[in-house]
Every structure is written in structure tokens, then in C-alpha cells.
Amino acid sequence: MVKSYKTVIIGGGLAGLTSAYTLAKSGHHVLLIEKRKYPFHRVCGEYLSNEVMEFLQREQLLPTGYDFPCMNSFLFSDTSGRSTSIALDLGGIGISRYVLDEYLFQKIIEKGAEVKTGVQVTSVLFDEVENRFRLELTGGEFILGDYVIGAFGKRSKVDKVLQRHFMKKRSPYIGVKYHIKTDFDRSAVGLHNFEGGYCGLNAIEDGKANFCYLGNRDQLRKYGSIEQMEREVLWKNPNIKHLFNESEFLFERPEVINEINFERKAPVEKHILMAGDAAGLITPLFGNGMAMAIQSGKFAAEAILLGKSRIEIEKSYERNWKSIFAQRLWLGRIVQKVIGYKVTSFFMKNLIQHAPAVANQIIQNSHGKPF
């Protein structure tokens, strides 16, 4: 027999885990499918804005037993390494995805959600006659679902199966992530520019730091390896060079993701509620993707719980998603087009330094309000 679920969630990142928790705690019959097995590392900034802190604490979704560092300032350096800083109005904490995702995974199991890990969705089709989805998994297994939440991240095989328009465009961006131990201001989120991209640095639990950068595929191709690209391109910013030379690197090799795409996406496609990066990827410079993923996963689950029909559910989710996220993503796409250049990084450094009120307004517009 083909097993049937009320809701199937494809992808076990923050959006998928939050939606699974919200549904399961209400007694909803939900299945979450994640292609990897917990715990594992993801390419991510690992800075979590305080806009989600009330929700996480209210639902007891913040891992216990850790001293998560709090960040209340923003440090910016242009491509030449000249730096300035500004206070963060809202602030946030540093927390690794390795810790947070594993904790949320255990919470959804406690609430009664079913989970399949180490399995991928190979096809998902909506049957208009039956008014439900049919999904095929690796190994040839089929399952049915009344609703599907797509939380499969920045770029997935499911995007290709669904023939989403952004998959037709090649993206020049790659993401690279390290965990390091180093001497730096643990109360600051650092963003250091280089030609073609930028690095983020912030403290996380256990005295570690997350060091993550957005680079350019063409530069990688030119220099032949990540290590050589880092030396030839990133190290031209002396702040970045110092981090590479004076830090203890904790991974055997970096986490890497290709084809990071900031193109516009739809929050509902082929009756699937898209959440997190699957609905739209915020540029790291201009927003907090972790907070957006958590909130959009909550929205998707609540739309299903409160809706009386498929049309009502889809319209409710799309309306809420656009009202909270659409403008932020639009502004982020504009900023992304001019970032990673010498002139614009100089301009942004001077803006922060000499017009802090304007810079503060930009930062506020790039984040949401506590919920």
C-alpha cells in the first residue's frame, strides 16, 4: 500500500523543521523528508537575528546547555581592508546549524512527526482529480500527501523536476564555509569585502566562529582551486588574510555550495507552498536568512492548519509571505548587483562611517520585527 500523509515537507532545514514542528504539535499527520542525516553542517552565515528569539523561546526551540554569543555591532571593511563599525539595533546570536538543526530535529520527533532521512524526492506531481500529491522517493517508494511544503533550500533536484524558471539561469556565486578558532571581537558581526564577493565572520557556540564567504565561480575556474583563489583574491583584503594566517581551522575541508541563485522565486508553485530559501534567497549582506526561514516555515504550517480549502491556504500563505519578505528580497537583489566591487565597497564603508542614521535605516529595513 502507498502510505498517505496530511502534509509532506521536502527538506529538513530551518523552514522545513519549523513547519514540521508547528504541524506536529497540533496533532497533524506530517512527514519530513531530508536527503542527509542529522547532524550535519550547512553553508550558512549562522547569525540568528533576535527577530525570531521570542518565538524560539516561547516554543522552547532554542538548544539548552550552550552559551550562545550575543552580537550587537556590525563591522564592515572595504576591499582594501579599511574598516568601520556601527551598532546593531536588533542584534542577534551566533549558533551553528549543526547544533540548531539537530535540536529542532529531535523536537519534531518528540511531537510525533514522521521523518525520512538519507532519502531524496525524485518527483512530485499534483493530481487535479484526486486533489493530492504523489511523490516518488529514491529506491522507488511512492507516498501521497494532501499538501506539500517545499523547503528544499537554495537549489535542488526538485527545482529541476518542477521546471522552475530560475533553474534556466546560471549563477556565478559559490558559498564556502569554515569553522575556526581565532582572536576577534565576539560581540560583532564582521563583513569583509574582496573583489567579487564578501566574507562574513561571527562567533558561535563553544568558543568557535563561523567564517563563510560568497565568491565567484569564474575566479575559482581561473585559479583552479579554492585554496589558490583565496590566496589570490580574498587575501587582498588584509583583514581576511589575517584570519587565514592567524586562525585554527576546524574542518578537514570547507563546506561548499555551487550555483547560489538570488533570482526571484514564487512562494507557491504547482500548489506547493515554498518556504525558506526555496521561496527566495536573501543576500547575506542584506538580511537574515535563518530568521526568514523560521518565519516562513511557521507561516506555511499555519496556513495549512487554519485554511479551509486549498485555494484559501495558498492565497493566505502567499499574501503573508509577500507582505513580510517580498520587499526585503527585492532590495537585496539590488544590493547584490553592486556588491564585491572596489568603488561600491568604499562607498558603503563611508556611508556607515559618515551617515550612520542612513546606514541604520538600511539595516532596519533588511530585517523583520519580532513575532
Task: Provide the helix percentage.
Answer: 25-40%
CATH names the topology as: FAD/NAD(P)-binding domain
Derived structural class: alpha/beta
Under the CATH scheme, which class?
Alpha Beta
What order do the SSEs take from the amino end to the carboxyl end, as H and E? EHEEHEEHEEEEHEEEEHHHEEEEHHHH
**What oligomeric state is this?**
single chain
Task: Please state the CA-atom Rg, rounded to the nearest Å.
Answer: 20 Å
Q: Quick one: CATH superfamily?
A: FAD/NAD(P)-binding domain
What portion of the residues fall into strands of 2 or more residues?
A: 25-35%
- Which whole number gives the mean pLDDT? 93
Coarse shape? globular
Protein model, in words:
There is one protein chain. With 371 residues, this protein is α/β, with parallel strands linked by helices. It has a single domain, classed as FAD/NAD(P)-binding domain (3-Layer(bba) Sandwich), CATH 3.50.50.60. The protein has eleven helices and 17 strands. The strands form two sheets. Strands 3, 4, 5, 10, 11, 12, 13, 14 and 15 form a nine-stranded mixed sheet that branches. Helix 1 (14-24) packs parallel to helix 3 (97-110) and helix 1 runs parallel beside helix 8 (289-306). It is globular, with a radius of gyration of 20 Å. The relative contact order is 0.19. The mean pLDDT is 93.
Keywords:
alpha/beta, FAD/NAD(P)-binding domain, eight-stranded mixed beta sheet, 371 residues, nine-stranded mixed beta sheet
Layout of helices and strands, plus pairs?
Layout: E1 3-10, H1 14-24, E2 30-34, E3 47-49, H2 53-58, E4 70-77, E5 83-94, H3 97-110, E6 114-117, E7 121-127, E8 132-137, E9 142-150, H4 157-161, E10 173-181, E11 188-194, E12 197-203, E13 209-216, H5 217-223, H6 226-232, H7 238-246, E14 248-249, E15 255-260, E16 268-269, E17 272-274, H8 289-306, H9 310-338, H10 342-354, H11 356-365
Parallel strand pairs: 1-2, 1-9, 2-6, 4-11, 9-17
Antiparallel strand pairs: 3-5, 4-5, 7-8, 8-9, 10-13, 10-14, 10-15, 11-12, 12-13, 16-17
Helix pairs in contact: 1-3, 1-8, 5-6, 8-9, 10-11
